[in-house]
Amino acid sequence: MAQQMGNQPLIVLSEDSQRTSGRDAQSMNITAGKAVAESVRTTLGPKGMDKMLVDSTGNVVVTNDGVTILKEMDIEHPAANMIVEVAETQEDEVGDGTTTSVVVAGELLGKAEDLLEQDIHATILAQGYRQAAAEAKEILEDISIEVAEDDTEILESIASTAMTGKGAEASKDLLAGLVVEAVRAVADDEGIDTDNIKVEKVVGGAVDDSELVEGVIVGKERVHDNMPYFAEDANVALLDTPIEVRETEIDAEVNVTDPDQLQQFLDQEEQQLREMVDHLVEVGADVVFCQKGIDDMAQHYLAQEGIIAVRRAKKSDMKALARATGGRIVSNIFDLTDEDLGFAGSVAQKDIAGDEKIFVEDVEEARAVTLILRGGTEHVVDEVERATEDALGVVRTTLDEGKVVPGGGAPEIALALGLRDFADSVGGREQLAVEAFADAVDVIPRTLAENAGLDPIDSLVELRSKHAEGNDAAGLDAYTGDVIDMEGEGVVEPLRVKTQAIESATEAAVMILRIDDVIAAGDLKGGGGDDGDDEDMPPGGPGGGMGGGMGGMGGMGGGMGGMM
Ligand code: ADP
Ligand code: MG
Questions:
Q1: Cα 96 to averaged position of ligand 2 atoms, centre (Å)
Q2: Is there a contact between 407 and 492 (Cβ–Cβ < 8 Å)?
Q3: Of 55, 192, 324, 485, which one is least surrounded by beta carbons within 10 A?
Q4: What is the 44 CA–ligand 1 centroid distance (Å)?
């Protein structure tokens, strides 16, 4: 494609556009992709380090989570962004293994670079990599272990492995239990929708105080102090319209000629609010969740009627409430009928760590649970949340697919060995590409060893020899440095974490390798320093990123260098 384009004399580029072709384009893109992978490599595994990311407004994120790091880094280079997408795909599809996928992609690019230098054509490389990836999938299937749906112990191990080395580490047993319970609670015939698991973060207390509540927790207080704290067997109204007299009606010019008229006008407003509340009473609502505001006067009337009301509830909370209570969100109060009401056995305002929240429990319509995650500071709670999200993802994935593989680098060693055997059957120049692929996946056990302060060569040698003896589950214990049976140790991950990582890493590497011509529109500024004065281009927009990336290669190298 690109070559054809190159031969087309009819294409006229604008004077300002920048063009890089052939090996220059390839090596520029490879360098960028490798740099991204390198930037997250040190976070891999139980002994991986965390990163502190500070954005331009001074917000601080401390994390070990690959995809979070890459998203926060605000990467502009287009090829580098393709690697970031690998992490995003991994996050969406399985919820864990983001660092692994990016590190493998970077290594595939690195190994490809060596072969390109030996004049192996990128197309051959791409073919070889694809063949290797297909074979890799089979090898992983072969070493995978089936998991029964009701095997709580192994599901908890999976959740726990996903949280190893994260901020949640110290409480991972408790959290793993909660995560498995939560996923189980929302599982039904149609599968598992983790959207039904709400995560409510509470700053205060310890991570160990985290708990699972069946139902939905809304992080708001009731609007009026005279409202009750509890409602039993409550009918719940869900409104996404304000309980106010429309602003426009108030703003409209009212010609008042004497005080009576003003009073009349105000009475009329009160009358309208009264009618709204009366309608809620008539329909039988005991609790009202309103996504918008509630007028002071209406609050007063609601309190008089003994109705619990919450205003400015989050949209996501409204959805969760609708699912859990079986209610329907209504946009016009007077359209509300008793059919639209949801039901909850208990609605109560309770205090957690000094924050008042509304607990909606004993819901029967749909299964919905809330994980209350606690921690001493906001940064701790945020990182616990990210680790928990990973754990939710792996448990869901395992229940979907029913297969796991041992962790600690075991599957990657099995892959490397299996692929080297497979390479012999490939022949031709593609064989070199398959071998390069096999070398590339070794990066995972090597990095696990490096991050644990172990000698990577010694570890790899021992891992390979154990695998050669037929121990498919032999992996590296990052704490002791011993090569042990990972399955026995309970270090297991869903098969799909590995197959998805290989698949998207390969796709991205192949896509980057096949590019031999980069044409960037010259009138797009961007990159490093000129972001600020370029008002027309939103920074980070696709076009801006492209231009910035091209022009700013030097900047990229420099910026990323700081991270390594
Ligand atoms: P990712 O973003 O790829 O999930 P992590 O930092 O979570 O990166 O590290 C995952 C790697 O750590 C996997 O290869 C996993 O098998 C490994 N791992 C997890 N727990 C252990 C353990 N106890 N011992 C050795 N390796 C482990
Ligand atoms: Mg992980």
A1: 5
A2: yes
A3: 55
A4: 6
DSSP, residue by residue, 342-358: EEEEEEEEEEETTEEEE
Q: If residue 400 lies in a helix (H) or strand (E), which one and from where to where?
A: helix 378-401
Q: Which ligand does the CA of 45 lie closest to?
A: 1
Residue identified by tokens 């172990």 is 454
- Residue 254 is predicted with a pLDDT of 63
Q: Please state, in angstroms and rounded to a whole number, the distance separating the CA atoms of residues 175 and 159.
A: 8
Q: Which of 448, 462, 497 to mutate to test the pocket of ligand 1 (most atoms within 8 A of CB)?
A: 448
Q: Which residues are catalytic?
A: 65, 98-99, 390
Ligand 2 center–CA 472 separation, angstroms: 21
Nearest atom in ligand 1 to 101's CA? 3
DSSP 350: E
**479-492: per-residue pLDDT in tens?**
999 999 999 999 99
Q: Which atom of ligand 1 is nearest to 103's Cα?
A: 3
Distance 409 CA to ligand 2 centre (A): 12
Those residues whose C-beta lies under 8 Å from the C-beta of residue 9, and which sit 6 or more positions away, are none
Distances (CA, A) of 255 to 252, 265, 270: 10, 10, 19
As a whole number of angstroms, the distance between CA 450 and CA 478 comes to 10
The pair of three-digit structure tokens given for residue 546, joined into one six-digit string: 């492209």
Mean pLDDT for all residues in the chain: 87
Q: Is residue 196 lining ligand 1, measured as CB closer than 6 Å? A: no
Q: Distance (Å, rounded) from C-alpha 103 to C-alpha 502?
A: 10
CB 526 within 8 A of CB 441: no
Ligand 2 center–CA 51 separation, angstroms: 15
For ligand 1, is residue 120 a contact (CB within 6 Å)?
A: no
CB of residue 443 inside a 6 A radius of ligand 1: no
| pLDDT for 207 beyond 80 | yes
- Beta carbons within 10 angstroms of residue 174's beta carbon: 15
H or E element, residue 31: helix 22-41
Distance CA(10)–CA(31), nearest Å, equals: 31
Give the pLDDT mean for 290-300. Answer: 95
474: confidence class by pLDDT, cuts 50, 70, 90: very high
Full DSSP string of 412-450: HHHHHHHHHHHHHHH-TTHHHHHHHHHHHHTHHHHHHHH
pTM: 0.82
**98 CB less than 6 Å from ligand 1?**
yes
Provide the residue type at 394 as one letter: V
Would you say residue 12 has pLDDT above 80? no
Residue 373 has pLDDT above 50, yes or no: yes
**For residue 68, pLDDT beyond 70:** yes
| Rounded CA separation 220/443 (Å) | 47
Secondary structure (DSSP) of 111-139: HHHHHHHTT--HHHHHHHHHHHHHHHHHH
Pocket test for ligand 1, best of 164, 441, 451, 495 (most atoms within 8 A of CB): 164
| Separation CA 106–CA 91 (nearest Å) | 17
How far is C-alpha 472 from the chain's CA centre? 30
Q: So what's the pLDDT on residue 339? A: 95
Instruction: Answer whether 161 contacts ligand 1 (Cβ < 6 A).
Output: yes
d(C-alpha 429, C-alpha 457), whole Å: 28
